[in-house]
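name: query_chain
kind: protein
chains: 1
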Amino acid sequence: MVVLAGVVLVGAPRLGNGSTAPGPKDKGAIVALEFVPSEVVKPAMAPMPLVIEFSGSLIAPRTATVRAKATGTLLKLAVAEGARVKKGQVLGDIDLADLQSRVADRAAAVESAQVSLSDAERQHAANLGLASQNFISTTALQSSQAKLDAARAQLKSAQAQLTSTRIGMREAALISPIAGIVGKRHVVPGEKVSAEQQLLTVVDLSTLELAGSVGTHEVARLAPGQRVQIRVEGQDKSVAGRIDRIAPAAETGTRAIGVVVVLDNKMEQFRAGQYAQASVMLEDDSTRLSLPMSAVGQSSGQDFVWTVENNALVRRIVITGRRDTISGRVEVQSGLTPDAQVLAARFDNLKEGAPAKVVEQRAAPDSSAAASTPVPNKL
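structure:
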């Protein structure tokens, strides 16, 4: 039976005479297991691109929270969750009667200060004339000048307070600071709100970020500006992104360093909060000893392969390195020589030291062995 390399088989390979492994009644018969060339591979030198992967949730860096800038009753909200808004758009109204009364009070204080300044200016001008004729003392003139300076300062103070109150009045209007989509309404009309209370959240989805982390042994291979392939949950195809920034230090208590990837989302096909996986492929400028992934098994945390050496099966522990899922190959750093004959698939019930050989064509099975013909392993 000819089996393509990489196909996983179950059941023992058939013996040289076409029968299955010896049973209890014929323990004395030792017949070599036969493997055809398609079931055996030799390690090959090939480039192994390194793929660095990290994952996380998509976030919208341009997210604005609209807060109340004054205490009052929320009269209305003009937008609902999911509504699209423009920058500068009015989102609702707050009853600002208290703030309006303060504006009127500050305006009256400015008028009063202006009257006081005019009176001080007239008095000081008169005192200057009297002083030139020596009708008043120098001390009286200085006192007049001081009153004039105080009146000017009082007017500036009143004007500054009026300006500050008017700014507060202007900022109290519920205006969207950015263009985007209303993500959440935190209050309902008729509710009494206080200064700095959250009212609405507006999200700009045109640019999203993926914040993940990589190991300290991998971060040196990354740099801002590198292209990244991002696969978002629910999407069949990956999209392109780029590394925007890399954290300067590892996270406390870990050996992981944060990496932020920027994703262009002008079509708004993705949403903040979706899980995504990013991968950076680094080309290999050298060749490495490699095997098909199907040839490498694992047991107790150790990678191993089966080889045919001196007409016997040998189970060898190997140290693996890079894995290329596209080509389906894995790097073998140690444990094998380039001329090793390695079983290309994982077989069940193999035993260390069992007789084995590679033949051009396996002998046709007889009827008694037909039931033991190997079939693909479903594992």
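note: Residues 1-12, 14-25, 367-379 have pLDDT under 50 and may be disordered.
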